[in-house]
Each structure stands twice: as C-alpha cells, then as structure tokens.
Design a protein that fits this description.
4 helices, 5-stranded antiparallel beta sheet, single chain, two-stranded parallel ribbon, alpha+beta, Peptide Deformylase
Length: 184
C-alpha cells in the first residue's frame, strides 16, 4: 500500500511520536508500505511514520538509491524504531535539505557531522551505532520528524519569514507533486 504523504501544516507532523513494541499491529506490512511509499515518491531517501499519518517512533532510510553515484551506499537500507540520538558531535556542516512533506522547497540547514544513535530494527534487535557525514544528516532529518520537528525549524526566523507564503500554500494543499499528498 502506498500512503499519501502528509504535508507541512498537518498537526501529526508536530506531535512527539510514541514508542512501539514488537506487537504493533501489522508492523512488517507497515514497514514494507513505508518503503513502497518512499519509492513511489521518487524524490526521497527517507520517510518517517508521522509523514504518513502515524505518530509512532519509526523511520526508514534507503541510501542505496544513491549507489549509482555513491557506491559506498550500496545495500544501505535501514529501519529505525524507537530511535534515540544519544550524542551529536563534530563540526556543524551546512547543506541543502528538502522534505517530501514540504515539496518544492530546499533550505540550507546546519547539523552536527556525527551522531551516536540507539534503536531497534524491524526484528526488535537493539543497535547502538555511530554515523558521520551524509548518513548522519539523513538520520537527523528523519529523527526530527519523530520528535515533531521539520527541517525548516533549523533555519533563521528571517529566512522562514521569506518563505512563509510558500509554506502557507503547502499547508493549504496548493502544491504540485507527482505523489499522493494529504494536507491539514
């Protein structure tokens, strides 16, 4: 099943998502549907459950979609459940980011270069891993979603004011994209 992607302005994107346990109903199917939704959207490499209307602490990332240009990402496909970033460290690195919930916009966002994250995977096996560079950025972006944040929360108030009308249009569903969306 391909879910519609909830657009900026929908209240579910601002909620602190809840942890789940291994008995979450139809978890394996939901994870499969999350990846199907991500692939159908074509523009993304990560998707968090709140972006499809589920306020749970789960997100998926598939960096292997970039493997043609970045061979080191071949096979890099992960599910993060009940994730907790325990440390952010290193230099701040600025880079343009976009989001399937905020189509048509990109903004420069500064994030720490490296993170340590604890999570369970789709089999509820525990992991504690360190990531740096682009994987760390993508994880931080998706992690923001399960904490009720979006990437534009990291830009300056002046910059946010400059894009306010575009954000208002997105919140009203006045947006053109090639995937299914749901506005507030």
């Amino acid at each position: 099943m391909v879910y519609p992607i909830y657009l900026y302005g929908n209240p579910v994107l601002r909620k602190q998502a809840q942890p789940i346990d291994k008995d979450y109903p139809e978890l394996k199917q939901f994870i499969s549907d999350m990846f199907d939704t991500l692939y159908k959207a074509e523009d993304g490499i990560g998707l968090a459950a709140p972006q499809v209307g589920k306020s749970i602490r789960l997100f998926v990332i598939d960096l292997s979609l970039l493997a043609e240009d970045k061979p080191e990402y071949k096979g890099w496909k992960k599910v993060f459940i009940n994730a907790e970033i325990t440390e952010r460290f290193g230099d701040n690195v600025s880079m343009d980011e976009g989001c399937l919930s905020i189509p048509g916009l990109t903004e420069t966002v500064s994030r720490k270069k490296s993170i340590i994250i604890k999570y369970v995977d789709e089999n509820f096996e525990e992991h504690e891993e360190t990531y740096s560079g682009y994987p760390a950025r993508v994880i931080q972006h998706e992690y923001d979603h399960i904490d009720g944040h979006v990437y534009i929360d990291h830009i300056s108030p002046i910059r946010r004011q400059l894009i306010k009308s575009k954000l208002n249009n997105i919140a009203k569903g006045k947006v053109s994209c090639h995937y299914k969306v749901k506005s507030a």
